[in-house]
Specification:
single chain; Rossmann fold; CBS-domain; four-stranded mixed sheet; 15 helices; 16% strand
Length: 334
């Protein structure tokens, strides 16, 4: 077969490559669909087993199953289920000591006959350590030894020779994610807890709250309503926020004096006035628990650069902090 041009040959080749890629993706998607449709009481038992573990979950697997196991351990650990990966070969040479009596073991093997897992399985059984298996075949040695076995549905590998782990590892990975999310919901894992475990990167920044960035205590620019303007301006200058919050006798925030307020009242009588005469009433405020991204959007909408933070988030409450737009931008939120 010949082609009129090199471009036609390349187009035919590219079409064939894309068809192969689409076949792989569809086959793996079908595997995930079968896995979802086949979830049964064994999955409930697996979540129950994991929930009962007082220590950590030790994940182990050989070859491609080991790579998937590392990712499953990382996902569990980052979503509130303490877990780490132990290589089965290293386990046989001393790393079994990483498994405590309060721990559990998750062993992954597509065949269920991985010889390298024998020592870690035997160790778990001898010490009564809960053993959860993720296998591609049952009956198998690993499935029989496990307290709970999660068996993958029978699916051909996407490899054209049916040999390279592709569909099976995709299903293992999906099942690991399903366990992690189920455990999150079981434990009521919150966004606050997620932030604690993800302090770096974009995920961490998205969960930074106003309370994490605001200035507190002696940094607050505050003055009483009857403070003379010379004293109010001195506070504005010292605190360097470009504003001063005005509080009543009970310490509640009732107003704010900004550079704009000074400009509007700039005349010969300014220094004879008190802060209550110059202030803007009912200033914009926010609550300490609000996300910093929410505060940034609020500032942009209202065209302001500073926000007082009050106990309940509204004016007329006691001020507990102040937030400048630069504080948010320095935290990498934009």
């Amino acid at each position: 077969m010949s082609f009129k041009t090199r471009e036609e040959a390349l187009a035919r080749e590219n079409s064939s490559v894309r068809a192969a890629a689409a076949r792989v993706l569809r086959l793996e998607a079908d595997g995930l669909g079968l896995l979802a449709d086949g979830l049964d009481e064994a999955f409930d038992a697996a979540v129950e087993l994991l929930s009962a573990i007082k220590g950590k979950l030790v994940v182990s697997g050989m070859g491609k199953s080991g790579h998937i196991g590392r990712k499953i351990a990382a996902t569990l650990a980052s979503t509130g289920t303490p877990a780490h990966y132990v290589h089965p070969g290293e386990a046989s040479h001393g790393d079994l000591g990483m498994i405590g009596r309060d721990d559990g073991v998750l062993a992954l093997s597509n065949s269920g006959e991985t010889a390298e897992l024998n020592d870690i399985v035997a160790y778990a059984k001898f010490r009564g350590i809960p053993l959860l298996a993720m296998v591609g075949k049952a009956p198998s040695t690993l499935a029989s030894a496990a307290d709970v076995a999660l068996v993958l549905p029978a699916m051909a590998e996407a490899c054209p020779m049916g040999l390279a782990p592709t569909t099976s590892t995709t299903m293992m990975l999906g099942l690991g994610d399903a366990l992690a999310v189920a455990m999150m919901e079981q434990r009521g894992f919150s966004a606050d807890q997620f932030q604690v475990l993800h302090p770096g990167g974009r995920l961490g920044r998205e969960f930074i709250r106003v309370d994490d960035l605001m200035h507190k205590g002696g940094e607050l620019p505050l003055c009483p309503a009857d403070a003379v303007m010379s004293a109010a301006i001195l506070t504005m200058t010292e605190k360097r926020f470009g504003c001063v919050g005005v509080v009543d006798g009970a310490g509640a925030l009732i107003g704010i004096v900004t550079d704009g307020d000074l400009s509007r009242h700039m005349d010969d009588d300014l220094m004879h006035k008190v802060a209550g005469d110059v202030m803007t009433r009912a200033p914009k405020t926010i609550r300490a628990g609000a996300l910093a991204a929410e505060a940034l959007g609020f500032m942009n909408t209202n065209k302001i650069t500073c926000l007082f933070v009050t106990e309940n988030g509204g004016p007329g409450d006691t001020p507990v902090g102040i937030l400048h737009v630069h504080d948010i931008l320095r935290a990498g939120i934009a």
